[in-house]
Specification:
Elements (H helix, E strand, L loop, with lengths): L28 H4 L9 H14 L4 H9 L13 H17 L1
The structure holds iron/sulfur cluster (SF4).
The site of iron/sulfur cluster (SF4) has 14 residues, from helix 2 and helix 3.
Length: about 100
C-alpha cells in the first residue's frame, strides 16, 4: 500500500517581513501608484520622486524581487516602474532559460 503524504491545508504565506524596513512606509501611495489617466510630464516627475525614495531604501532588492516574481502590474516597486519591471522580468527569464 502506497503512502500518501499529507499536504498542508494552507499554502505558505509570502514573507512580508522586509516591508517593515521599507523607506516608503508612511509616504503617499499616490507617489508610487499614480492616478488614473495620469499624463506626462506629471508621471515622470512623480516616478522620479518615488524612485529617489526607493534608491535609499534598505529593502529595495527584496521589494524588486517580490514585484518581479509576481504579476504586480502597477506602480513603482524596487525603483522600477511598470515597463522597467516587465523588461527586468523578461531579462531574468532569458537568463534562467540560458542557464
Ligand atoms: S524599494 Fe521603493 S517601493 Fe520598495 S519598499 Fe523600498 S521604498 Fe518601497
Amino acid at each position: 500500500m502506497s503512502q500518501v503524504r499529507r499536504q498542508p491545508a494552507v499554502l505558505p504565506r509570502p514573507n512580508w517581513g522586509w516591508q517593515d524596513a521599507a523607506a516608503c512606509r508612511g509616504e503617499d501611495l499616490l507617489l508610487f501608484f499614480g492616478p488614473d489617466g495620469e499624463r506626462q510630464p506629471e508621471r515622470e516627475i512623480r516616478e522620479h520622486k518615488a524612485k529617489e525614495i526607493c534608491a535609499a531604501c534598505p529593502v529595495r532588492v527584496e521589494c524588486l524581487n517580490y514585484a518581479v516574481s509576481r504579476p504586480e502590474k502597477y506602480g513603482t516597486w524596487g525603483g522600477l516602474n511598470e515597463e522597467e519591471r516587465a523588461a527586468e522580468r523578461r531579462r531574468r527569464m532569458r537568463r534562467a532559460n540560458a542557464a
